[in-house]
Write a structure and sequence with these properties.
alpha/beta, five-stranded mixed beta sheet, 11 helices, 15 strands, 17% strand, globular
Length: 333
């Protein structure tokens, strides 16, 4: 890989690249906790599936007719004062807050604003839409920062009600948790140094490629044995390693890489997407009523324009316009 600046290999204090890495680390320090509070919340029932430390291995994925098939939306969508008695949503309302596992270091999707300290982004908007539907306002929500590897365990033990953290819907994950209908279609790409001639993993033979532990992006690297897969807790950790020269590239969803490139003037997103990454909001395996409720919320957001407005605010500047949200699949029985 061609590196335009010798300082790209190892950035030192005083350099612009080092300042970017330090700024990212300081802004997000304390936000990307590597542990979560595993104490189940009063109304969050633990899923019956056995918790794991992350996504299942691709080789262990069960047969699956349609990973994107979710449950039919609750129709009509009940008002906050009309939630079904005994439902998961009523329990959340009675608790006083919706608890959602999110990222704090995925710029554009879920990241902490350094000016006001608030978590914001496209995924955060999706979570707040659900809170609004339950409570009539979007601030009755606890955004609990988790890593990619903590998404499934946090749902399985009831620590969170939902996960809104660029989570790809897969058959293997359906064995452990439940998903909403697809709310965004991303694709896995590469982030490399500015000026590099690499455009695909095939161009990175013998090079070190970073992806977060517990992510489908890291799983996909198993299909490319010629590269050296390097795992990290978060994409921000990958970015710091990339800026310090410890890894040669980062792989992940184009949405995430767009946010990383916005933080590093010496980085660029290259190539065509080599996977399809359909995002869904994760829920506990037993919370079918909550999934149906969330699907009704997402359908309403698409119909009234809130989905497009959120996309245009966060993702359109980096990824271009999109005509509409993905077509939902409600084929799960």
């Amino acid at each position: 890989m061609n590196r335009p600046h010798s300082s790209r290999t190892r950035r030192t204090p005083g350099s612009a690249g080092y300042a970017v890495a330090v700024l990212v680390t300081l802004v997000l320090a304390g936000c990307t906790s590597t542990a979560y509070d595993s104490t189940p919340l009063p109304t969050a029932a633990a899923a019956t599936a056995t918790p794991t430390s992350g996504s299942a291995s691709p080789s262990a994925a069960p047969a699956c007719a349609d990973a994107l098939a979710s449950y039919a939306p609750l129709t009509p969508l009940p008002a906050p004062d009309g939630l079904p008695a005994g439902s998961t949503m009523a329990g959340i309302r009675d608790r006083g807050r919706l608890v959602v596992g999110v990222s704090a270091d995925s710029l554009l999707l879920g990241a902490r604003n350094p000016i006001n300290g608030q978590l914001e982004g496209f995924d955060i908007d999706m979570a707040r839409m659900v809170a609004t539907a339950i409570f009539g306002r979007d601030d009755a929500i606890e955004l609990r920062v988790i890593t990619a590897a903590q998404r499934i365990p946090a749902l399985a033990d009831g620590s969170v009600d939902l996960v809104a953290r660029n989570m790809t819907i897969t058959c293997a994950r359906w064995e452990q948790i439940a998903f909403s209908a697809e709310y965004y279609r991303a694709g896995q790409k590469l982030l490399v140094p500015l000026g590099s001639t690499a455009t695909s993993l095939a161009d990175l033979s013998g090079r070190r490629v970073c992806a977060p532990a517990g992510s489908t992006s890291l799983d996909k690297l198993a299909d490319f044995p010629e590269v050296v897969a390097v795992s990290a807790a978060t994409h921000t950790d990958c970015l710091v390693r990339f800026q310090e020269g410890d890894v040669d590239a980062i792989t992940g969803d184009d949405t995430v890489l767009a946010g990383l490139a916005a933080q590093d003037p010496y980085a660029q997103v290259v190539g065509s997407a080599f996977t399809a990454e359909p995002y869904g909001l994760g829920a506990g395996a037993t919370h079918v009523d909550l999934v149906r409720f969330v699907n009704a919320v997402l359908a309403a957001a698409e119909a009234d324009g809130r989905w497009v407005r959120s996309y245009d605010r966060w993702l359109a500047p980096a990824l271009g316009p999109v005509p509409a949200a993905p077509v939902p699949d409600y084929g799960r029985g």
